[in-house]
Specification:
alpha/beta, Pectin_lyas_fold, globular, ten-stranded parallel sheet, 5 helices, 342 residues, disordered N terminus, pectinesterase activity, pectinesterase, glycoprotein, nine-stranded parallel sheet, Pectinesterase_cat
Length: 342
């Protein structure tokens, strides 16, 4: 019996050793860690100082660990500084916040597009580099947090690069909270709070198990509703789109699920629990006008009082479980890059 156990143990060890290369290569290693502490007990007191230390052309993952605290600053990850892992200690404990905002007519700024400099420059946090990860941290724009009588664009975050992932992060604002601008992005178990177009852009993104929170005041604009999303496609057949997979939509006020920034907009809600904040019509054509044939707005398998599709706009697409698979499958955004992140 003892000999049998020994042989079995040897076989098990051999199997594990044979599997070890595959297991060890599943996630990328981190080459170094830079610590940010607002009380001065780290390498830097500010997040931007830590980012600046990462060399241009970086090709090895660098962790920037931000200890619990509130950091009032605007942080930018420039295009030249890829392979950064920005890590907090929980989005309720670690927050980067600022209160910048756009000047002038909101409608005029939106018609100029998301690349209008005034829009970009309002973001509390901006990432322009490819290959970036953030975990357990909050990004907040406080500009419209109290007075919503004269709101304007005030971004919490601008995401403008390829192969970017956010895990358990929070994005808080009101007008245009998250500019999910271009590239392939993955948001897992994040919380996104806003009132008007609070997720907008041209990107191809999956929001996996995320919580969308409407913070429109109950008496805002005499019952005026907001829009959760404002997506735009680059052209016909563009693979972009916002896909909400699981999670929930809740909060105060009233919300359309989205409005079409142009006639190639794509937004899919899949198995999302929707509260009664959802406006019965569900969607608005906005800049698509009467050209809604190419707009792909869809809901599949959603639940909750806001998921009743009886009053939806007639041009909403009705996808089967088979047809929606190409959007909810991870291959919609991932060709292997997610498993190569730390």
């Amino acid at each position: 019996m003892g000999c049998h156990r020994t042989v079995s143990l040897v076989v098990l060890v051999l199997v594990l050793l044979l599997q070890w290369p595959a297991l060890s290569s599943a996630w990328a290693p981190v080459s170094r860690t830079i610590t940010v502490d607002s009380d001065g007990r780290g390498d830097f007191r500010s997040v931007q100082s830590a980012v600046n230390l990462v060399p241009n052309g970086n090709r090895e993952w660098v962790r920037i660990h931000v200890r619990a605290g509130r950091y009032r600053e605007k942080v930018t990850i420039p295009k030249e500084k890829g392979y950064i892992l920005l890590e907090g200690e929980g989005h309720s404990s670690t927050e980067i916040y600022f209160d910048d905002h756009a000047h002038g007519s909101t409608d005029r700024l939106m018609r100029r597009g998301a690349d209008a400099m005034q829009t970009y420059e309002t973001a509390t946090f901006s990432v322009h580099a490819n290959d970036f990860v953030a975990r357990d941290i909050a990004f907040t724009n406080t500009h419209n947090s109290v007075n919503k009588s004269r709101v304007t664009q005030a971004l919490a975050a601008l995401v403008d690069g390829e192969r970017i992932a956010f895990h358990r992060c929070a994005f808080s604002g009101f007008e245009d909270t998250l500019c999910d601008n271009t590239g392939r992005h993955y948001f897992r178990e994040c919380v996104i709070k806003g009132g008007v177009d609070f997720i907008f852009g041209y990107a191809r993104s999956i929001y996996d198990g995320c919580t969308l929170v409407s913070n429109i005041p109950r008496r805002y604009g005499r019952g005026r509703a907001g829009w959760v999303t404002a997506h735009a496609g680059q052209h016909a057949g563009d693979p972009g789109g916002f896909v909400f997979k699981g999670g929930e939509l809740r909060g105060t006020g009233r919300q359309y699920l989205g409005r079409a920034w142009n006639k190639y907009a794509t937004v899919v809600y899949y198995h999302v629990n929707m509260s009664s904040v959802v406006v019965p019509r569900g969607w608005a054509p906005w800049h698509a006008g009467n050209e809604t044939n190419d707009v792909l707005f869809a809901e599949v398998g959603c639940t909750g009082p806001g998921s009743d599709m009886a009053g939806r706009v007639p041009w909403e697409k009705h996808l089967t479980e088979t047809e929606v698979e190409k959007f909810v499958d991870m291959s919609f955004i991932d060709d292997g890059w997610l498993s190569k992140q730390p």
